[in-house]
Amino acid sequence: MAKRGRKRRTVRLPPVLSRAGKTAMFLVLIALIGAAYAWHEGRDWRPDEELWPDQGALVSAGDGAVDFDTLAGLGAQFVYLEASDGAARKDAGFGPNFARARNAGLQVGAAHRFDPCAVADGQSGNFVTMVPRDAELLPPAILLEKTAGDCPTRVSDAAVQSELTTLVNQIEAHAGKPAILAPVEDFEAAYAPSRRFDRQLWLTRSWFEPEYSTRPWLMWTANRWYQTEAAQEPLRWVVVRP
């Protein structure tokens, strides 16, 4: 009986890249290397003090131990300290950092991170329990970084805007001065706080001046990864418009 011949499997080799494909891959690789180099070199960049004389940092417990005397020696005039986050989370470093920053001669401000998933009353209550009434404090800052897309249940844009309005009023009543609103670009695109609120703005964009608000800003987080001997972790370096 004749044996059946086995079917030969056709081995499919990957197509050879064309010269244009190889060039494109090379350019992408060069771009990635360039971006990594720019990020590494940019970690110790900050705006020129002659042009931007009023500089400081935004600090939280997540930054580890911060030497505020060294920070002042590097040219910082102020620090904002994260105090509260949403309705329940508190920054464990706020109290110690507050005392150390003041002892270093720095002006101090307190920041609250807005939670679009939570009502304003709980959030302002959280802030009030952490931040004393103190006329010498800088205006309170409200960090606007999360959108309702992160919430476990749907929250409408109108609800977010309403709770933010209430929170601003409640924090200002405690502080005795107008708040500074600090929206990142995604939050500004979603809720337009720069158009809806007549408050000073604090924007964020590393190495390049931000342009995403509908009107001029007061403060700018110019480097989110500022590497300095004053801290174990990179700090968020902030400047004030002259």
Structural overview:
The structure is a single chain. With 242 residues, the chain is of the alpha/beta class. It has helices at residues 19-42, 68-73, 94-103, 120-130, 157-175, 185-191, 193-196; strands at residues 55-59, 78-85, 89-90, 107-113, 141-144, 180-183, 200-204, 219-226, 235-240. It has an eight-stranded mixed barrel with strand order 1-2-4-5-6-7-8-9.
Instruction: For the record, give the distance between the C-alpha atoms at the N and C termini, rounded to a whole number.
Output: 97 Å
| Structural class designation | alpha/beta
Unreliable runs, pLDDT <50, ≥5 residues?
Answer: 28-41
Number of helices: 7
**Number of strand segments:** 9
Strand % is 15-25%
Mean pLDDT reading: 89
Q: What is the radius of gyration?
A: 25 Å
Shape: globular
Based on the model shown, name its key terms.
single chain; 242 residues; alpha/beta; eight-stranded mixed beta barrel; 7 helices; 33% helix
Annotate the secondary structure layout.
Elements: H1 19-42, E1 55-59, H2 68-73, E2 78-85, E3 89-90, H3 94-103, E4 107-113, H4 120-130, E5 141-144, H5 157-175, E6 180-183, H6 185-191, H7 193-196, E7 200-204, E8 219-226, E9 235-240
Parallel strand pairs: 1-2, 2-4, 4-5, 5-6, 6-7, 7-8
Antiparallel strand pairs: 1-9, 2-3, 8-9
